[in-house]
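Before a colleague's protein record goes any further, I have to sign it off. My question to you is simply how this chain folds and whether the tokens agree. I do not need a full report, just your reasoning and any doubts. This is what I was given:
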Amino acid sequence: MARERTATGGSPRRARRTVNGVVLLDKPAGLSSNHALQHVRRVLAAAKGGHAGTLDPPATGMLPLCFGQATKTCGIILGARKAYRARLRLGAATDTGDAQGSIVSEADVPAVDTAQVADVLRGFLGASEQVPPMVSALKHGGERLYELARRGESVPRAARRIELHRIDLIGVTAGEIEFDVECSKGTYVRVLAADVAACLGTVGHLAALRRLWVSPFEHEPMVSLDEVLAWGDTHDTGGGDAPWLRPLDCGLTGLTRVDLGTADSASILHGRAIRSETGLPAGTTVRAYDAHGELLGLLEVTPGDRLQVIRLMVAAAPLIRQLT
């Protein structure tokens, strides 16, 4: 594959190419989500990429990376359930809610037993309101909250509805509690950890956090960044895609599949609605494929048993030429 030289004449780099697919990266601690994305993007020489959700630099675990047309599915993945393993350290609260921050308050660590902690954790199950932390990527007046926090500013944050679907105690050791939690989009485990500590009569912060999975990838393996980089050292991206690059539609398995014939595929690629008796209620999103099994895009069921394009996932012009 052709390689470009850097602007300063330094070491060569791969020319960018079209890459469509998803990588389930096991993000290591110490990297921001964006830096992790850029490492993988460079290995693939991908022209376009993004990540579904953000993991704080100290956190590890599943970070779905979407490339090319798959970036159009990030919103679907972002709305999914997530599961984490958290380790709460009692006795000290930090300004960030995790181990990266500075200690802002301390308190005695009460003697707690497994039954007591399990009972407290169960009390957080279900729907509730949670106020996001100041150190977060949410925006206020066009600025990220963490940027305001760095300047010592604090602004009111509206509580957001979250839901904890499952929370299981893993273990209790001297001053630390480890638990698993399955939760909805928008849940801050740092805030949950502080709330658990408060219910136990003390303060605390998140000592470690690992994202176990993001739906619909509950049972899918991840690839480490070391594996990605090692593959990049021994492969030229022109020789074939990486084995850990998943298909474009792997994040869409929860949507009903609709297979279309040649004429309907051409109509969809031209942006025209088609008639299709799916039996699904109006407003339902489906994934559509052409006669060769290639993903065309996302369609919406409209009144009158019709399907309307929401988002194409292919370069329409070349396929139209093939179909006509």
Summary: The domain at 255-323 is CATH 2.30.130.10 (Archaeosine Trna-guanine Transglycosylase; Chain: A, domain 4). Confidence is low (pLDDT under 50) at residues 1-11, 316-324. Helices lie at 33-44, 74-78, 114-122, 145-150, 189-199, 225-234, 262-269, 316-323.
